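Q: Given only this backbone (410 positions), what sequence would you predict?
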């Protein structure tokens, strides 16, 4: 009998390695849409969205480091191997349309792989030391609650004290041009023209207070990509507010604290809000906002509240130009990933119950305290799935590190 037949684990490692490397190559070597401004190759987590890009590159190589760690490769060797692999990818990207070579990507990739290897070492020690893993399980639950709080903080509006300009059906890079027209736009009782606003202090105050934005517009043809109907930008070119259309969906995007921290900017939608409108129809669009929760309407079609849930954390790391079903699925996965360490670290059913109860209490109470919407049923299922998956994976890994299953108390 061959070694692989005697122990299927090495074969599983090889398959995991092939899958992870294939995913990395697909994510990094396919042509991409060119960006408006090419970043400096020496840039490390700089520019708008630079922190999000750094974190994504870090996470891209994290599984590779973990797989190599499980295969028995030393952490220092993983650092060298993945550093060389990342450098080769960055050099290749110099010749691929839409791709940029960046020192920051090499640092993030290599660091992610190395941390992945250290996580594997930590997991080995965690399973051996039962008492320590119980504390880690409870700590993981506290971390998950902290992540939910952070999500609420990051979706808070962030309106810098600069000069603001109105833009009616503006042509902007990377977006379609909406061929309808705006007749009038107001913020509270203040008119918003398609040029620099006169009373900047009043505009700032009204926006911070969540004053209603009302737009009277004439419908144009539907668009394939996002097209701004009305938007506000500042004198630095930063997007402050955007109300637009993609297909037949209404899209609302405002400058959040996440953008100020170098992360990506999520958005909310009303699906099919423009489905029953023809070219030339009159549209009354209204938007109010308070602490990250929106109410929006197009004539008689209304969505309230329209905001973000605990599962929206992924959208700070990746541009959320995705179908609605996929955004929902990513929210489920995000919550599951947050709670998986709670189940994985729990050495006993009692510890699992304590950590799970703590995390579920946070899911039930924290969103309302930080301006998020109540956790929907699908994200509750994701949380339960993540907790259970972590618990099961622990048992599978425990059998590989030489601790008898009977010795794990339940």
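A: Predicted residues:
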């Amino acid at each position: 009998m061959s070694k692989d037949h005697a122990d299927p684990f090495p074969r599983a490692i090889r398959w995991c390695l092939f899958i992870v490397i294939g995913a990395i190559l697909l994510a990094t070597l396919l042509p991409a849409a060119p960006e408006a401004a090419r970043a400096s190759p020496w840039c490390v987590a700089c520019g708008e969205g630079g922190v999000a890009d750094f974190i994504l590159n870090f996470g891209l190589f994290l599984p590779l480091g973990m797989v190599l760690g499980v295969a028995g490769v030393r952490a220092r060797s993983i650092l060298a191997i993945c550093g060389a692999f990342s450098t080769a990818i960055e050099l290749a990207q110099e010749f691929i349309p839409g791709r940029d070579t960046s020192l920051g990507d090499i640092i993030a990739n290599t660091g992610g792989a190395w941390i992945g290897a250290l996580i594997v070492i930590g997991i080995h020690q965690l399973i051996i030391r039962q008492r320590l893993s119980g504390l880690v399980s409870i700590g993981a639950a506290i971390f998950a609650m902290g992540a939910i709080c952070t999500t609420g903080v990051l979706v808070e509006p962030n309106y810098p004290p600069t000069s603001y300009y109105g833009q009616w059906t503006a042509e902007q890079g990377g977006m379609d041009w909406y061929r309808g027209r705006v007749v009038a736009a107001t913020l509270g009782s203040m008119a918003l023209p398609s040029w620099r606003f006169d009373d900047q202090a009043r505009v700032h105050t009204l926006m911070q207070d969540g004053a209603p934005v009302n737009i009277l517009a004439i419908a144009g043809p539907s668009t394939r990509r996002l097209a701004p109907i009305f938007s506000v930008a500042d004198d630095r070119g930063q997007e402050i507010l955007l109300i637009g259309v993609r297909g037949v969906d209404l899209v609302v995007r405002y400058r959040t604290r996440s953008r100020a921290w170098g992360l990506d900017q999520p958005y909310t939608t009303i699906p099919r809000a423009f489905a029953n409108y023809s070219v030339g129809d009159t549209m009354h669009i209204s938007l109010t906002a308070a602490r990250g929760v929106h109410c929006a309407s197009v004539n008689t079609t209304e969505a309230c509240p329209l905001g973000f849930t605990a599962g929206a954390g992924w959208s700070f790391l990746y541009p959320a130009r995705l179908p609605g079903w996929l955004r929902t699925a990513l929210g489920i996965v995000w919550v599951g990933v947050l709670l998986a360490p709670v189940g994985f670290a729990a050495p006993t059913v009692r510890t699992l119950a304590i950590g799970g109860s703590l995390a579920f209490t946070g899911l039930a109470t924290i969103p309302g305290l930080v301006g998020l919407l109540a956790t929907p049923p699908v994200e509750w299922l994701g949380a339960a799935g993540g907790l259970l998956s972590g618990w099961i994976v622990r048992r599978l890994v425990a059998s590989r590190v030489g601790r008898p299953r009977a010795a794990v108390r339940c």
